[in-house]
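ARCHIVE CARD
Drawer: 12
Card no.: 0347
Subject: one protein chain, sequence and derived structure
Cross-reference: see card 0346
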Amino acid sequence: MNWFEQRIRRYEHRRWTTDDNRRVRPFEWGAEHVGGSPEEANPRGFFAECARHALENSRAWYETGPAEDYRLDSKNVLTFSSSIKSPWAENNTVHAQLFPAKEKRAAVLVLPNWNAKWHGQRGLCKWLQRLGISALKMSLPYHDRRMAKGHERADQLVGSNIGLTLQANQQAVQDAKRCLRWLEQSGYTRIGILGTSIGSSVGYITMMHDQGVHAGGFFHVSTYFADVVSGGMTTNHVWESLREHVTVDELREYWAPVSPMPYVKLGMGAKRNTFMVYGKYDPTFLPELTANMVEALHEHGANPRTLELPCGHYSLELMPFSYIAGYRMLTYLRSALR
């Protein structure tokens, strides 16, 4: 490990320790969140079958029509009902902020990182706006205005409840698809997706299940949801709850429907226009997982543009990495959506 990598890793660890509200929550199977019973006698068999069925019928599993109650207020905040009704009412209304460009032609749906705040990634949206591309930044399930009462973090989107994590990520994709339908109804004809971290995972799966997306930009890239949770630094409190009850292999199987890799192996990424940016020293989306993902994409007919930077997960936000990544991503989106 050279001195520069050591410096990046020290920064990543320091940033990770600044969040002092992580909680190791009780493990739950949560079969009731995906059509099962809370008293499921054989939860392992149930989730194995649930995952198999969802993957084999993923287009139907992720399908949703436009919302019937879109409302854009005077502050350019779009709200509408989610197609999935979760146990928390506040999570069932989707909030998204529009940054309109002068010309209503190209638009990008922005999907932020895990535990992003309402005002997060405004700078990125403003830059898209200046380039003549409208940006619609969607709050992911259980985030900011959708956060469940009694919670400080989005513990349901990445958490120790197997079924609820599945439902929350299915909801995220369906919410994103409803945002895409609103953009189409509003007159936008060239539409892209820009996702960061878990927003990258949700965005990639959305793109694979929606032909209305013309380009996809993704900050941070990985394979399976379970591998990130079990091996990543920022999710070790989640894995602490899970590891006594399920193996990594089991969790990879159960959470396969909300992981990008299965759709890569099905060839769904072929001929899709994508650009992927990632860090060489990322302790959250481990570099070996990123390498496996990029290799699998090439093996299954996809040809993504890629950019590896000598940084980590958090440090991608630092200069000069943020400038390089932002410039390359914005240049790519402007060209792809012209």
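Annotation on reverse: The CA atoms of residues 54 and 246 lie 20 Å apart. The chain is about 40% helix and 15% strand.
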